[in-house]
Design a protein that fits this description.
By secondary structure, the protein is of the alpha/beta class. It has 8 helices and 10 strands. The chain has helices spanning 39-49, 69-86, 95-100, 144-147, 160-164, 166-173, 188-200, 219-226; strands at 3-7, 12-18, 23-30, 59-63, 90-93, 110-117, 120-129, 132-143, 155-158, 177-179. It has a 5-stranded mixed beta sheet with strand order 3-2-1-4-5, sandwiched between helices. Strands 8-7-6-9-10 form a 5-stranded mixed beta sheet. The chain is globular.
Length: 227
């Protein structure tokens, strides 16, 4: 079973190709949200370098958000297009769950956190429970100060939001806060591995109705509501 993962929620465009147990190829590039120019080319390279053909794929997994509204739409459109052309299932994976999966082997709970701008973060808390990832705090967009009381202790932060707000986090949590390497970002390979689980469990989504999970309105939408 081969699943391609696409993750475009941040300025880092990332794709990964996996089988049921391991990562075959992975590529990431900071494209500054110019993902439309790189996503399909990176996917084709990942498939070719694994010695496979695009027709060998059994499913496409895509990071469904939260994150950049534009980036998420590009990733979803690319994933849908491939699934439609190949007649294979589409799997949607929380961007934060995919990010947490990079370090969730740690014994402590993991808070995946991205800077949502305007004084807010996107955050979700996960832990490894019997070999499966369990959500301790549902994905949400909220101010950092509102997140702190909701967190288990100790907790490991992964994602650029942890480093952006590190001083504020440490002021609240002290030694109960750990931080994964600053270079950790949402990864197509992690999304693909979670996609394998979703495919195995029969959790494909409807191509016609699948949409990104933004978790808040865009600035344009907010502007329309106030006019």
């Amino acid at each position: 079973m081969y699943v391609l993962g696409i993750e475009t929620s941040t300025p880092v465009c990332s794709v990964g190709l996996v089988d049921e147990e391991r990562v075959l190829t992975r590529y990431s590039q900071n494209t500054g949200l110019r993902h439309a120019e790189r996503t399909i080319a990176m996917a084709e390279r990942a498939i070719q370098d694994a010695g496979l053909a695009i027709a060998d794929l059994h499913g496409i997994a895509v990071g469904s958000g939260p994150g950049s509204f534009t980036g998420l739409r590009i990733g979803m459109a690319a994933a849908k297009g491939l699934c439609f052309a190949l007649n294979i299932p589409l799997l949607t994976v929380s961007t934060l769950k995919g990010l947490a999966a990079r370090v969730v082997f740690e014994r402590m709970p993991v808070c995946a956190i991205l800077d949502a701008r305007r004084g807010e973060v996107y955050a979700g808390v996960y832990r490894l429970d019997g070999g499966a990832m369990t959500a301790l705090l549902p994905d949400a967009a909220l101010p950092v100060e509102d997140l702190m009381p909701k967190l288990p202790k100790p907790v490991l932060f992964v994602g650029e939001g942890g480093w952006t707000y590190r001083s504020q986090i440490e002021a609240c949590l002290g030694e109960n806060a750990g931080f994964a390497p600053e270079s950790s970002h949402p990864c197509g390979a992690s999304v693909a591995l979670l996609g394998v689980e979703a495919l195995r469990d029969g959790n494909a989504v409807d191509l016609a109705t699948a949409e990104p999970e933004y978790h808040r309105r865009s600035q344009a939408e907010n502007g329309r509501r106030t006019n």
